Amino acid sequence: MSSTFFFALAGIGLFVLGLYGLIIYAHLLRKILAINIMGSGVFLVLAGLAHRLPDGTADPISHAMIITGIVVAVAATALALVLMLQVQHTTGQAVLPEKQKY
Amino acid sequence: MQIKVLSQKMEEDTIASWPIRLTVGGIVLMIAVGLLYAIWSLSPDYAELKWTLAASMHESGVSHPVTAVLMNFRGYDTLLEMGVLLLAVMGTWSLTPIKAAPETHPPGLVQDGLLRLLIPLITLVAGYVLWAGAYAPGGAFQAGALLTAAGILLLLSDWQLPASLLPWLLRLLLVSGVAVFIGAALSMLWLNTYLLAYPPQWAGSIILLIELCATVSISAILVALFLGGRPDEPGSTI
Question: Which controlled-vocabulary keywords does the entry list (chain A) (predicted)?
């Protein structure tokens, strides 16, 4: 197995691990962390697949997509954290309410 | 503080019951197998886009392909992305109450001395990374991340923008990246009828200008996000 597919495999593993955590845990901070792990998995897949050109050079287009993606992920995480603090401020706990009860 | 409350709550986090965990685990494994198959079955000779890129590199104004894609060929993408960053700050500011100046302690002797060494060094390296983006890995986003580190270090050691400059200087920094990018896009529309189609002889300078403003803007946006709310300003109402 080439290193390209090893990276892609690790990326899929991270993505799936994050997806599992996102569904299983109720706490919003864990959910945000899980989404970040999923994002890292996607970036790893992109970076790994960029290197599978026959001439051994990297594909600059997926690299450019990763660069923009990382910065957007940071900004989105910050916004998500602020939203989480707001949920906690309103309902007293950082968990999405099961039913409309406030 | 709030963070402490959160971490206490994390300890008593509810977790789904065993049957649900097993079901979710099974579904997630199936997704993994599907994704693996999708990647395995990708055609190995997909590189047409790369050859298109290599053929038109001489028109891009820079010699590093990633920067060419980011700032020229997929400039629209990057422009919208700068808009997304600005939206994140606007969302943050509209959701949180206005922050009083964060509690910081005046930096100790070691921290102060280290900052005096580090901040100029980080700024210098950021400038180099920005400049090197034309022909080597680097560019606006990397330089912006470096400047963000410098800004967060300054924030953590009791340094703030002068209150009289804060209202307009901070907003100018936040908006400058998107504003210059849109300005460049519109002037190209007016000059040669295509949005973001830089003439090859000017492309290098236009890209450098956009990247310079984008660097400053990205770092200002990320530092503002780190602060987590609109900073207190003279005359602002709560």
Answer: Cell membrane, Membrane, Transmembrane, Transmembrane helix
Extended strands (E) in A12-68: none
The end-to-end CA distance of chain A, in Å, is 54
On the 0-12 / 13-18 / 19+ scale of CB atoms within 10 A, B177 is: buried
Q: What distance in Å separates the CA atoms of residue B82 and residue B144, rounded to the nearest whole number?
A: 12
A60 reaches B (C-beta below 8 A) = yes
Give this complex's ipTM: 0.83
Tell me, what DSSP letter sits at residue A27? B
Rounded CA separation B99/B223 (Å) = 14
Of A19-23, B13-17, B71-75, B179-183, minimum mean pLDDT range: B13-17
Tell me which amino acid residue B4 is: K
Check if CATH label 1.10.287.3510 holds for domain A3-91. Answer: yes
**Residue A32 is encoded by which pair of tokens?**
């945000």
The answer to whether residues B61 and B198 touch, using CB atoms and an 8 Å cutoff, is yes
Q: Which residues does chain B have within 8 Å of residue A20's beta carbon, measured at their own beta carbons?
A: 24-25, 28
Domain locations along chain A: 3-91
* Nearest one of B169, B186, B124, B132 to B150, comparing CA atoms: B124
Residue B141: which of A49, A67, A95 has the nearest Cβ? Answer: A67
CA distance A15 to A23: 13
CB-based contact, A8 to chain B, within 8 Å: yes
Q: Which long-range contacts (CB under 8 A, 24 or more apart) does B199-203 make?
A: B200/B58, B200/B59, B200/B60, B200/B61, B202/B61, B203/B59, B203/B60, B203/B61, B203/B62, B203/B72
Using CB atoms, pick whichever of B13, B40, B44 lies closest to residue A25: B13
